[in-house]
C-alpha cells in the first residue's frame, strides 16, 4: 500500500506524519483510523467544537465515500487535514433551463426550411417532369425533408465537433428519403381522385413525414432510446400536421407555403434534437466562446443516463447519480492536476486538457 504524507493544522502549527492508504478501500474509514492513531499520540487538530473535518489533496477537497484510486490520488502530494466552520449542506438543485442546443436545433431546422422554400421557385422549370400534385408533393417533401435534415445534423455535428460532411449526407438521405417515401405512400391512398381525399392524404403525408424524419434524425444523432424516440415521433407528427394545415390554406399560396415550410423545419429540428438534450443527465458546454455567431460557436455534449460521451481523449459517463470523468490511456489534465483514474465531477466550471467547460447537471426530467 502506498505511503502518504499527512499535513495537519494543529495548535502547534503544521505537523507532518506518514500513513499508508489502501487504494481499494473507501477513504473515510481510513482517515478515521488515522485520526484515532494521532489522538493516541496526543496530536489534535486545531478547531472549534462545531467545526468539521476537511480533507484535501492536490488543491481540491476529497470525497470520503470514494476510494483514493477513484480520485486520482498519488503519494506525490500530501494529504491535508484541517478543521473548518461547518457548512450547512444543501441538496444540489437541478438546472431546469432548456439546453441551448434545443434553440440551436430550431434555428438550424428553420434555416434548412428557408433554403428549401427558396429552391421551390425552380419548380416552374420541372413542369414536364412533375405532371401531378401528388408527384409535386413527393418532390417537395424530398427537398424540404432533405434540407431540414441536412441542416439539423450539420448543426449537431458542429456542436459536438463531429464530421460535417457525413452529417450532411446522412441528414439528406434519412430525412429527405423518409419524408419522400411517406408522401409517396400517402399519394397511393384510396380517395385521392376527389378533392377532399387529396387534402386528407396531403395532410396525412405532411404529418407522417414530420414524424418519420424526426425519429430517423434522433436515432442517428444519439443512442436509440424508446422514450426519446416516442417524444420525437409525437413532436414531429405535430409539426408536420400543423405545417400541412397551413400549406393547404386558401388565399396567398406563396405566403402559406413559406410559413408551412418554416413551421415544419423548426418543429422537426426541435423534435429530433430536443428529447436527447432535455432528458440528458448532464450537459457539458464549452465556455469562452465568442458572443458573435452564438449558434455557430455553440459546442455542447449531452451526457446520457446510459453509455458515455467522448470529450477529447477522455470519456464522460453518468454513474450512480453522478458525472464521472474517465481519462484516456495517457491520463488527463484536470483543473491543473494530472488525473490517471476515473473521478467524479461536480457541477460548474471544468478545465480539461487545455479547454474550459461548464457542467450543468439536469437531474430527472
Order of helices and strands: EEHEEEHHHHHHEHEEEEEEEEE
How widely separated are the two ends? 43 Å
Number of domain modules = 3
Mean pLDDT rating: 83
Provide the spatial order of strands within the biggest beta sheet.
Answer: 2-1-5-3-4
What does the radius of gyration come to? 28 Å
Instruction: Give the strand tally.
Output: 15
Task: Provide a concise account of the structure shown.
With 365 residues, this protein is α+β, with helices and mostly antiparallel strands.
Key features?
Ubiquitin-like (UB roll), 365 residues, four-stranded antiparallel beta sheet, Tumour Suppressor Smad4, 3 domains, 15 strands, 45% helix, alpha+beta, five-stranded mixed beta sheet
Present the secondary structure layout.
Blueprint: E1 3-10, E2 13-20, H1 27-40, E3 52-57, E4 60-61, E5 79-84, H2 100-119, H3 133-160, H4 164-187, H5 195-221, H6 226-247, H7 253-278, E6 282-286, H8 294-297, E7 300-303, E8 308-311, E9 314-319, E10 322-326, E11 332-334, E12 337-339, E13 343-345, E14 348-352, E15 355-361
Parallel strand pairs: 1-5
Antiparallel strand pairs: 1-2, 3-4, 3-5, 6-7, 6-15, 8-9, 9-10, 10-13, 11-12, 14-15
Description:
With 365 residues, this protein is of the alpha+beta class. It has three domains: 3-84, Ubiquitin-like (UB roll) (Roll); 100-278, no CATH class; 282-361, Tumour Suppressor Smad4 (Sandwich). It has eight helices and 15 strands. The strands form four sheets. A five-stranded mixed β-sheet has the order 2-1-5-3-4, with no helix packed on it. The protein has a four-stranded antiparallel β-sheet with strand order 7-6-15-14, with no helix packed on it. β3 and β4 (60-61) form a beta hairpin. α5 (195-221) packs parallel to α7 (253-278). The longest helix has 28 residues, at 133-160. The model is unreliable at 87-91 and 124-131 (pLDDT under 50).
Amino acid at each position: 500500500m502506498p505511503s502518504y504524507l499527512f499535513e495537519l493544522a494543529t495548535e502547534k502549527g503544521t505537523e507532518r506524519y506518514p500513513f499508508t492508504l489502501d487504494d481499494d478501500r473507501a477513504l473515510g474509514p481510513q482517515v478515521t483510523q488515522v485520526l484515532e492513531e494521532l489522538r493516541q499520540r496526543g496530536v489534535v487538530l486545531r478547531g472549534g467544537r462545531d467545526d468539521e473535518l476537511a480533507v484535501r489533496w492536490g488543491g481540491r477537497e476529497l470525497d470520503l465515500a470514494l476510494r483514493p484510486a477513484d480520485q486520482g490520488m498519488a503519494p506525490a502530494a500530501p494529504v491535508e487535514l484541517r478543521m473548518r466552520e461547518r457548512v450547512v449542506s444543501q441538496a444540489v438543485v437541478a438546472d431546469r433551463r432548456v439546453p441551448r442546443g434545443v434553440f440551436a436545433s430550431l434555428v438550424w431546422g428553420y434555416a434548412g426550411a428557408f433554403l428549401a422554400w427558396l429552391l421551390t421557385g425552380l419548380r416552374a422549370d420541372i413542369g414536364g417532369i412533375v405532371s401531378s400534385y401528388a408527384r409535386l408533393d413527393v418532390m417537395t417533401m424530398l427537398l424540404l425533408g432533405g434540407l431540414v435534415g441536412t441542416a439539423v445534423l450539420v448543426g449537431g455535428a458542429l456542436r459536438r465537433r463531429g464530421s460535417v460532411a457525413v452529417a450532411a449526407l446522412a441528414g439528406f438521405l434519412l430525412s429527405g428519403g423518409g419524408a419522400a417515401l411517406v408522401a409517396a405512400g400517402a399519394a397511393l391512398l384510396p380517395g385521392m381522385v376527389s378533392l377532399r381525399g387529396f387534402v386528407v392524404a396531403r395532410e396525412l403525408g405532411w404529418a407522417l413525414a414530420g414524424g418519420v424524419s424526426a425519429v430517423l434524425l434522433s436515432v442517428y444523432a444519439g443512442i436509440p432510446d424508446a422514450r426519446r424516440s416516442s417524444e420525437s415521433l409525437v413532436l414531429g407528427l405535430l409539426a408536420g400536421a400543423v405545417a400541412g394545415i397551413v400549406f393547404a390554406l386558401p388565399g396567398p399560396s406563396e405566403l402559406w407555403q413559406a410559413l408551412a415550410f418554416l413551421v415544419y423545419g423548426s418543429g422537426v429540428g426541435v423534435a429530433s434534437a430536443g428529447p436527447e438534450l432535455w432528458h440528458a443527465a448532464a450537459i457539458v458546454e464549452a465556455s469562452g466562446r465568442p458572443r458573435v455567431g452564438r449558434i455557430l460557436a455553440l459546442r455542447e455534449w449531452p451526457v446520457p443516463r446510459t453509455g458515455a460521451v467522448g470529450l477529447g481523449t477522455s470519456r464522460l459517463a453518468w454513474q450512480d447519480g453522478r458525472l464521472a470523468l474517465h481519462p484516456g490511456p495517457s491520463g488527463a489534465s484536470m483543473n491543473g492536476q494530472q488525473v490517471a483514474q476515473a473521478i467524479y465531477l461536480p457541477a460548474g466550471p471544468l478545465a480539461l486538457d487545455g479547454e474550459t467547460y461548464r457542467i450543468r447537471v439536469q437531474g430527472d426530467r
